[in-house]
Structure formats: C-alpha cells, structure tokens
Amino acid sequence: MQEKGTISIHTENIFPIIKKFLYSDTEIFLRELVSNAIDATQKIKRLASLGQYNGDLGDLRVEVAFDEAKKTITISDNGLGMTADEIKKYINQIAFSGATEFMEKFKEAKDANEIIGRFGLGFYSAFMVADKVEIETLSYQEGAEPAHWTCDGSTEFEISEGNLVERGTEITLHINKDSEEFLSKQRLQEILDKYCRFLPVPIKFGTKTESVEDGVDEEGKPKYSSVEVDNIINETNPIWTKAPADLKDEDYLAFYKELYPFSEDPLFWIHLNVDYPFNLTGVLYFPKLKKDFEIQRNKIKLFSRQVFITDEVKDIVPEFLMLLHGIIDSPDIPLNVSRSFLQADSNVKKINSYITKKVADKLAELFKNDRKAYEDKWTDIGLFVKYGMVSEDKFYDKAKDFVLLTNTAKENFTLNEYKDKVEAVQTDKSGQLVYIYTNDPSKQDAFIQSANKKGYDVLLMDSPIDTHFISHLEQKLEKTSLKRVDADVADKLIGKDDVPEHILTEEQATKVKAIFDKAINRPAYKVELESLNPDELPVTVTMDEFMRRMKDMAAMGGGMGFYGSMPDNYKVVVNGNHKLVSRILQDENEDVQSQLAKQAFDLALLSQGLLTGADLTEFVNRSVNLI
C-alpha cells in the first residue's frame, strides 16, 4: 500500500502552542506589544519621509497604561494604524509579519532596518497573560474607517466598526487570573526598564511629580512647586547609536553609571560601530576586576534594534571577554522566533572575531601611546589579556607584544624585554631558559630572597588565571620553562655546572638523613640530603613543580581532578654544608640531635605558613627549651 498526501496543520492545534510555549517568560508579552507599537510609529515616520504620508505626524509616542479594577493593560500608539482588511492579513494570519512585508516594499529606504518585528508572532504573546484581547485601530490611509477586533483566545474572532477618531492603534489585554501580578505599576515599570529603556520612540507610562521653579519669594529666593509630568521611561538616543566623534568621556562614564550604578568607574572603553559585512554597534567597558572574576560575568547586554534581548552573549563575545561590561546591538544577530536566544549563524562567528580584533587593537594602541598609563592599569587589564592569550591563538599572536610580566620589584616587561633581562643568568646547562615565579610573595619570601642572592629575578604570578597562563607560556616560548620559587632550593632551580662540593662523608650523610627521617617521621615528607651553599637555609621544604602545578589546575577546575585527589607530598632538602648539620653530627646526645633536626624542619614549615595549631605550639615550647 502506497499513499501520498499533505500534512495538515490546523489552527486549533498550533494556537495553544503559540500562546503557551513560544515564549520562555510570560513578561515578554509587554516587550513584544511595545515593540509592535514602536514599529507602527517608525513606519509612519518612514512613509512621511518618503512623501507617501502628508498628514500631521503629531507627537509620536507609545503609551502603556493599566487599570487594576478592570484588570486591563493597554498599549497604544499613534503610528500608521490598520484597516479591517489589514487586521485580517496581519493579525488573523499567524506568522504573517507586517514588518517583513514593509521592509521588502521599502528596502531601498535608508532606515528600513529600524523596523523591529520579524516573525509576525509577537502579538500572540498577549494571550499568555490575557483571557481576551481587543484592538481599536484607525489607518493613516485617507478615507479609512476605524476598526475593532476582539478575540477570547480561541480561534474565533470578531471584527466590527471601531471608535478611534485619530490615527493609531490601541491594544487592550483583559488579564487572566494567573497573571494578575502584571496589574502593578512596579511590576510593569520593572519590565519596561528591562526591555524598553532604550527604544527609539518615547514611551509614556503614567505620570511623575517634578519640582519646577515658580517665581521668587519675598527675599528674592527661587520658589518651587510640584507638577505632574508624563513619565517617559526610555532614552531614545543612547550613546551607542551616536558617532564616537560626538561623544565625550563624560558621556561614556555617565552611561556606564546608568547601566551599573554601584560600580567603580571603568578603566576604558571601546565604541563598536561597523556596517559591513554586518551591522554592529555598541560600547564595551573594561571594568576594575576583583580577584574572584567569575562573579563578574553576564554584564554585557545584547540588544536588537534597541530592544533588549538577553545578557547571555557567550556565542557573540569571546569567552575571555565575558568579563567586560556594556552593550552590543545588532540587527544581524540571528534570534529564534521568540527573540529569546541566539541561533547558530556565520554572522555570529564574524562578530565574535571582530570584537576580538577591536579589543586587541585597543589594547595595543593604549600600550603604544602611553605605556606608563597602561602599566598603571595592568593589574586589571592583565586578567583579560592573559585569559585571552590562553583561550585564543589569534589573540595570543596580537597580545604577545603588549602582555606584561611583573616581577617582585614591581617592574614590568614585555616577553622580549624579560627574555633579554634574565637570559644571561637564568639559562641552565642544557640551554633551557628558566623563569622563576611566586604566587604568594609573603609565604615564599625566604625562597625569593635565596633566589635573589643568586642573581635570579622572580616574577609575580598571583592572579586567578596565572596557573593556566604559566603552562601556556611554556608551550609558546621556545626552550623556556617556568618554576615556582619554592619548587626546589635556589641552587637546584636552575641546573648549573658550578655545584658546591660535598663536605660530608658518605657515612656522615647517611647518619644525617637517618636523624632527620626519625625526627620528622611523616610519610608525606621525603628527606633528601643536598650539598648546597653554606649560606642557604639548613632545611627547605618543597613540592615538585609538576605535581604542584597539576594540583593548582585541579583547584581551578582545569580538568586535572585526578591530581587534586592525590595527597600532598613534599621534599625535605637538608643542606649538608650548613653549620647546623655539623653541630648535629658533633652532638652525641640523640635527643638533642632529634630536637635540632625537628626544629630546623618546623622553621622551614613556619616560613611557608605550613606550621599551625598544636605543631606551632610544640615548636614554640621546643625553642624555649633549646635556648
């Protein structure tokens, strides 16, 4: 049996899906209906500019009102309105977008892309919150008759003669019982602020009280009185719609404070403005970051034609720039039909690459034009730069010329400058260049001093991203490795040929090791005897560089969970050439030998903050007894 046919989609089947499941959040209804009203207003302006409407435009605006007693919300505009036939065409035919048809008809017009609507579905979001929806409308067309449309959420509607006497449209929602939360001034204001605060046509929502100067009093001082004025909730020309040449620093800072009122001033900003091969405008700010930079995410807001869409922009903005703040607006970013999230598209990748390039160019410009100011901001900028270099090779290729390495003396160097600084002293016997770093200068101070005595420079690597940045540098820099300053004793950090001579016999070395093994008696601490410079510490506690780094990465969530679960293991390096070792060997009292060894070991732990609690108390008491 073989049969062919056409799949039938009935309105009564698809309508509930549109009403209930098309939009992820019911509050979206207000954004959609206000956007439609904005479109109607923009269209009449466009027709007037093309000479196809010669009437008086009047004071173009959109108004949102509600009546808690009647349980209604009304969105009205004085845009181009509709005829009864247009209602049948644009409202009764689901997914027939008047915006799409308008743009096609007037695609040569300069600002046709200002129209917001795309899919012809936004109107039906009203039924998520309303039992009944009414439309009162009067078309701009000469001789048009007002029309009234009503629908109770079923597939049946009614069109009759309307009551409007002026051009425009008025949509009234009769709010259902489950959605009465929206019959609140505060709730509606909240939604309007979220989605509509930068729409290009004034939006009125009730009134507000303002104080105005009203003459002077008997003493000649100005008097003030309170007046009710329209509450316009939006800024119709936000800074990202303006040319950078028309803006001052104060404008950018004021806008930042408007977006993030409790934040410190940003370090600097980038104004995005491109119209080919895609349209993109916006302003991205570099904020001052905290150490815990994870909490800074989701601060970039995505708009489409000045309508807020989302603050989830991970596909548009590179991962490492998710720490930025600001606005991105593009009509070319593909959205799903509910305008709630992005869809995969080649333009998204192009925009992502463009933003990366703009940021790299801006940083390079700052570095080149005013290095001192750049260095002053490095503590904050460095996190972005290092994160970007680890995340994207293209960014690394640009940033390698303006990334800075900072040493414990707070001096800054580019990668090439630092190589020139340390190459002569910090190259080992195999020709490998070794960079030494600290992630905690206070705890590792003794190690830093020992390294400095040998003429070694120590880098400061204490930001949250440095664990990954260090490993990335080793992959990128030729014949270069990085070692934490406490990964070994200073004499062993960089392998040289000039190793100090042994002063202990083999028998003495064996005896010293046995004394320390017995005194320490901890499986996690492995004792090794080394012949070091007599001026070095008698005992040093270190952790292998590889193992410590893997543990650091595991702690940062770097995919090294296996190492994170392994117990800590340390190497206890006893300096066989130190005078304390000679004293231990000379003393015949085993108890004194053990106490001296334990004291030297605990002192090494104390210098690194590893001695706490009862062990610290025991150390203090032992010190008193030895004295």
Automatic annotation (TrEMBL):
Histidine kinase/HSP90-like ATPase domain span: 24-179
Transmembrane segments: none
Keyword Calcium recorded: no
A GO term for molecular function: ATP hydrolysis activity
Keywords, ordered alphabetically: ATP-binding, Chaperone, Cytoplasm, Nucleotide-binding, Stress response
The keyword Cytoplasm belongs to this UniProt entry's keyword annotation: yes
Coiled-coil portions: none
Binding site for ATP: E32, N36, D77, M82, S97, G98, T169, R339
Family: Belongs to the heat shock protein 90 family.
NCBIfam families in the record: PRK05218.1
PANTHER family in UniProt: HEAT SHOCK PROTEIN 90 FAMILY MEMBER
The protein, known as: Chaperone protein HtpG
Source species of the chain: Mucilaginibacter corticis
